[in-house]
Write a structure and sequence with these properties.
Blueprint: H1 2-19, E1 31-35, E2 38-42, E3 48-54, E4 56-57, E5 65-69, E6 72-76, E7 82-88, E8 90-95, E9 98-103, E10 106-110, E11 116-122, E12 133-137, E13 140-144, E14 150-156, E15 158-159, E16 167-170, E17 177-180, E18 186-192, E19 194-195, E20 202-206, E21 211-215, E22 220-226, E23 228-229, E24 236-241, E25 251-256, E26 261-263
Antiparallel strand pairs: 1-2, 2-3, 4-5, 5-6, 6-7, 8-9, 9-10, 10-11, 12-13, 13-14, 15-16, 16-17, 17-18, 19-20, 20-21, 21-22, 23-24, 24-25, 25-26
């Protein structure tokens, strides 16, 4: 009896899978891939998981990916089925449960059901991070929460994503970047020509001597001596060492959090 039951269960499982061939993709890490037929998705082995039929395709996040058909963007799941129909002029990946979209020339946010969670009324918006997203109103940036409430009033010439409780903003008078907390208070004074959001406790900044990293207190953690830097990820950050002459191109390397430099591309 047990053997018959097992055979019946196995047959049923196979039948169900056969009814939904895309179900096998649900636990896979799918990546966008372009062929002569358009954009689709491949699995870790490089096998086609979702047939190429899109004009453009973004990465999966929270189980959904933005795809473009003609001039419009929508979202599909890992089965390749539309969860949100193509109706937007632009669409980004999901962060904190919401995705940036553009409709009627303005930006807002949709949730995973396709509901416009925050009205498309902003000139520009950033992705949500730590519950807040930068939003531009009348030329100034502030920050909205997930309900669409303006949590930090628009006052900055530019606003980037929060990380480690802080966000880089461009002071409209000094024309320099500083960092605010979630109340909108400036906690690291504007003194940088450029800045990246905090990641793993450090933020890339560019000052008089070059680019390097500061900590959340505003102290220099890694000397500002590089041509450019990128954010930390898994304990390492890509940096570009200036050439010895103006004609010599910068050389790629990477640093750890202690500032130890290793030349070459950082490990994957």
């Amino acid at each position: 009896m047990k053997l018959h039951s097992l055979a019946l269960f196995t047959g049923l499982a196979l039948a169900l899978t056969g009814c939904d061939p895309g179900a096998a993709n649900l636990n896979k890490n799918l990546k966008p891939s372009q062929t002569g037929d358009g954009w689709g998705y491949v699995d870790e082995a490089g096998q086609i998981a979702i047939k190429p039929k899109f004009d453009s395709a973004g990465e999966f996040s929270d189980g959904l990916a933005a795809v473009k058909v003609g001039a419009k963007w929508g979202f599909i799941d890992k089965r390749g089925k539309y969860v949100i129909q193509p109706e937007y002029e632009m669409a980004d990946k999901f962060n904190d449960g919401l995705a940036r979209v553009k409709k009627g020339g303005k930006y807002g946010f949709v949730d995973k059901t396709g509901k416009l969670a925050i009205e498309a009324k902003y000139s520009s918006v950033g992705a949500f991070a730590e519950g807040l997203a930068a939003a531009q109103v009348d030329g100034k940036f502030g920050y909205v929460d997930k309900t669409g409430k303006m949590a930090i009033e628009p006052q900055w010439e530019m606003g980037l994503a929060f990380g480690d409780g802080l966000a880089p903003v461009l002071d409209p008078e000094k024309k320099l970047f500083g960092f605010i907390d979630k109340t909108g208070k400036m906690v690291i004074e504007p003194r940088y020509f450029n800045a990246l959001p905090f990641s793993e406790g450090l933020a890339g900044v560019k000052g008089e001597g070059g680019s390097g990293f500061i900590d959340t207190k505003g102290g220099v953690a890694i000397e500002l001596k590089y041509e450019t830097v990128r954010s930390f990820s898994n304990g390492l950050a890509t940096v570009f060492v200036p050439g010895k002459t103006p004609e010599e191109r910068p050389t790629e390397g990477y640093v750890d959090k202690a500032g130890k430099l290793t030349m070459g591309a950082r490990p994957k």
